[in-house]
Design a protein that fits this description.
Blueprint: E1 16-21, E2 24-30, H1 33-56, H2 66-84, E3 86-92, E4 95-101, E5 109-112, E6 118-128, E7 131-141, E8 147-154, H3 157-170
Antiparallel strand pairs: 1-2, 2-3, 3-4, 4-5, 6-7, 7-8
Helix pairs in contact: 1-2
Length: about 180
């Protein structure tokens, strides 16, 4: 590589699918199938236990199970979203669109391309009694120099870096270091 051209080739991570058409870039990735499967099994066990408990508790005390029932329904729905959903990032000449589906979830966005000054990603470390989980969140700096998270929980640096560089290249944004961004 010569000193003038600092652009590097970056392989497409296994979990990403890329489509490039004239004036459009589409990046897709599935959500975590393994986590979804584990949570689905757990939600069946949880909901089965709650169903059994509803048959043993007197009718006037069923309200006590309201919270455990809500937790069970949430776990079931969340596990289905992990199994079925995918995120689609679409870059057009006018906007950046981030949509997740087919099951409805929060977080869909449409951002005017002129509002994006810089993209960067940061490491997100979560510690619990079972260990440490590391994910990566993609952020943008807007025209007011405010940081906004646009994608959360990317599984690895390769996916986060690839999405950042592809979108920056599509919108012709010069990559500038941002305080707080992940550095290899």
């Amino acid at each position: 590589m010569n000193a003038i051209n600092k652009e590097q080739l970056q392989p497409i991570p296994d979990n990403l699918r890329i489509t490039e058409n004239f004036g459009e870039l589409i990046i897709e990735f599935d959500w975590s199938r393994l986590t979804g499967t584990i949570l689905l099994i757990f939600s069946f066990l949880w909901n089965g236990m709650i169903l059994f408990m509803t048959t043993k508790v007197p009718t006037e005390f069923l309200f006590v199970l309201t919270f455990p029932i809500a937790v069970g329904l949430f776990l079931f729905y969340y596990s289905l979203t992990l199994l079925k959903n995918k995120t689609v990032i679409t870059c057009t000449n006018d906007e950046l669109s981030i949509k997740s589906g087919p099951l409805p979830v929060l977080g869909n966005k449409k951002i005017d391309k002129n509002d994006i000054i810089q993209l960067y990603f940061a490491e997100n470390i979560t510690r619990n009694k079972n260990g440490t989980v590391i994910t990566y969140d993609l952020y943008m700096l807007d025209v007011n120099n405010r940081s906004k998270r646009i994608i959360k929980n990317l599984p690895n640096t390769e996916a986060a870096s690839f999405i950042e560089s592809k979108v920056e290249k599509f919108y012709k944004i010069k990559n500038v270091e941002v305080i707080g961004e992940y550095r290899k």
